[in-house]
Write a structure and sequence with these properties.
Layout: E1 6-14, E2 17-21, E3 26-32, E4 39-44, E5 49-51, E6 57-59, E7 69-76, E8 79-92, E9 97-103, H1 105-108, E10 116-119, H2 123-130, E11 135-138, E12 146-149, H3 156-167, E13 171-176, E14 179-184, E15 197-200, E16 207-208, E17 211-213, E18 220-227, E19 233-235, E20 245-250, H4 256-270, E21 274-276, E22 278-282, E23 292-296, E24 304-317, E25 320-330
Length: 334
């Protein structure tokens, strides 16, 4: 059995300069497109001292402060990957020392935005108004009527929440080549944008929490909304099963017949044989939400299938390097 050496590098930019810590009791990273914010929890020994230019030693909890930029790299055998990039949110001065961090959304929770009315145009015009200067990846659909940012919506995050409520578009930051990209409405990647993650049960999967469900056991309710240029919102009359998981879709500018067609398509695509649940792996293969996972279950019901990754919970520390990967919608099969 090949034994790999665990590596981590925590870099925090403080008022005393760059502090780098090559160890940790435990690191917990939660990442999902369903949440606006990725989080990172770092646990390290409290008795660490930072020596400044004047050679004076300061306890690390007195050096790290809210708002300090932080980057966490993890890996094996000296090969590192940036797993998290963001800001310190809070430092808990207990044993071990706990550093709570949030990704780039930390800034959008604390930045002011100005009131404005958007008449027509594209979603991107709203995003660039509330969060200028970022790299974007936006499903640039029509605003459809009037969209207002009122004075009671003081931060960019509040505007993103309103966009989700009105248009059904999720917003989050995705690291691309180690840099944050503000994503709106594009939670899933394709096989061209990123490598497909391959899993084989009982080979590179430590724990299999997947369960098989046949199509006849899947109950789905569907909701499709379409905002028109004048502000009117069309709704589907076909709603699927009377019980089950709700699948919703919001697309501006559709006719009533198109709304119904989308409702039927959403229902049909959801009523399929599927695997549900999660798996636990080591730190490799790398995985992030939005990617396509190719799963070989070696089961008679569904031996081989592809799903999108919805959530990844990464842990690192004295107990090893693990990822819990949760799956969502079916991806194109090949």
């Amino acid at each position: 059995m090949i034994m790999l050496i665990l590596n981590c590098l925590i870099s925090i930019t403080t008022s005393k300069g760059l502090v780098q810590i090559p160890f940790a009791n435990r690191i917990e990273i939660e990442s999902s497109w369903k949440d606006y914010t990725d989080t990172c929890r770092i646990m390290i020994a409290k008795k660490i001292f930072v020596k400044g230019a004047d050679f004076a030693s300061t306890p690390i909890q007195d050096v790290i402060a809210s708002g300090n930029p932080v980057e966490v790299k993890l890996g094996y055998d000296g090969v590192y990957t940036t797993e998290f990039k963001g800001y310190v949110n809070y430092v808990h001065p207990k044993v071990p020392l706990v550093i709570e961090c949030e990704d780039e959304m930390w800034k959008l929770k604390r930045t002011d935005t100005s009131a404005r009315k958007f008449s027509g145009g594209k979603i991107s015009s709203i995003i660039k108004h509330i969060a200028p200067g970022y790299t974007y990846d936006i499903l640039d659909s029509s605003i459809g009527g009037i969209f207002r940012i009122d004075n009671d919506v003081p931060t960019p995050l509040k505007v993103l929440e309103k966009i989700k409520d009105v248009y059904g578009l999720y917003s989050f930051f995705r690291l691309v080549n180690g840099n944050p990209v503000l994503v709106v409405g594009k939670q899933y990647l394709n096989a061209v944008q990123t490598p497909v993650v391959k899993y084989i049960i009982n080979e590179n999967v430590i724990h299999n929490g997947l369960e098989y469900r046949s199509a006849e056991d899947v109950y789905v309710k569907v909701r499709v909304r379409s905002r028109q240029e004048g502000g009117k919102v069309l709704h589907n009359t076909f709603t699927g099963d009377s019980k089950g998981d709700l699948k919703s879709l919001t697309i501006p500018g559709l006719s009533q017949s198109e709304v119904e067609a989308y409702a039927h398509r959403l229902y049909d695509e959801s009523k399929t044989d599927r695997m549900e649940g999660s798996i636990t792996t080591f730190g490799l293969p790398l995985a992030s939400h939005g990617q396509i996972a190719d799963i070989n279950t070696r089961m008679s019901e569904i031996k081989h299938s592809r799903y999108y990754i919805d959530r990844v919970a990464t842990t690192f520390g004295v107990d090893g390097f693990r990822r819990v990967v949760e799956f969502g919608a079916k991806a194109p099969q090949s």
